[in-house]
Amino acid sequence: MAAAFAALMTIDGSDPTTVLELLTDQIVGLSLATACTAHLVDEAEELQVVAARPEHPQVEQLGDLQRTDGPSLEALQSRQVRTADDLERHRTRWPSFAPQAGRAGFRSAQALPLHGSDRVLGVVTALYPEPVTHEARPRADIVRDLVVAAAARVADQQALAAARTEVEQLSAALYSRVLIEQAKGMLAGANGGSPEQGFELLRRYARNHNRVLSEVAQAVVTRSLEITDRDLPG
Question: For the chain, which terminal residue's Cβ has fewer other Cβ atoms within 10 angstroms, N or C?
Fold first, then answer.
């Protein structure tokens, strides 16, 4: 069991999907549950299936159903673990998920939210062929601990991705500003005006030709575009 935790925390070059694929493999491979689904929360705060084990159409369908009906959705909305000891008693509560789970041979389910620092990052749901009993609780506790470990890893990966995106955006913005400064200086020199007049030429050309200002600036800097007062209407 220690190896499972170590694998989650040391997996190299992983994204959140890879972490959850490994997690669901472990939960099923260690016989902690008969099947397992994992979802991540997208920008619209909706569940998206990223893993289903074993890879079987019925299990994959149960993962898809839980985007709109089932314990995973409730775990997301409540930010708490949702356990159904006997799915047969939840047909009214989950009219799509519960009957389909029964047809697939599952009698109980436990949905565990992946908690980030300020929001739920996703949900992992373990499925069992028998109602949850007192004897089965130790397995459920191990699943919970694995999910906590995976949540920490997913949070790290998402934070890293967000930081990279921010750096890329800042770099692009800085590069655009540099291009615009260069271009307005070149236009000022070519047309015998001030840098402010050079910027006005640049701005008016971009507006009149429905082009992005930084793209026009780059064309000026690379000398693939020349702009003069004669090219621009008033």
Answer: C
User: 203, exposed or middle or buried, with CB in 10 Å at 0-12, 13-18, 19+?
Assistant: middle
Residue (of 22, 47, 73, 52) closest to 127 by Cα position = 52
Q: Profile the chain (234 residues) by mean pLDDT over runs of 10 residues.
A: 59 76 88 91 89 91 93 93 90 93 93 86 91 63 80 68 56 78 84 82 87 87 79 53
Domain residue spans of the chain:
2-163, 168-231
**pLDDT value at residue 161:** 52
DSSP 116-144: -SSSEEEEEEEEESS---GGGHHHHHHHH
Right CATH for 168-231 from 3.40.50.720, 3.10.129.10, 3.40.50.1820, 1.10.10.10? 1.10.10.10
Nearest residue to 15 (alpha-carbon basis) of 114, 159, 215:
159
* pLDDT for res 69: 92
CA atoms within 13 Å, Cβ hemisphere of 197:
10
pLDDT on residue 151:
79
Q: Look up residue 109 and give its two tokens.
A: 């389910």
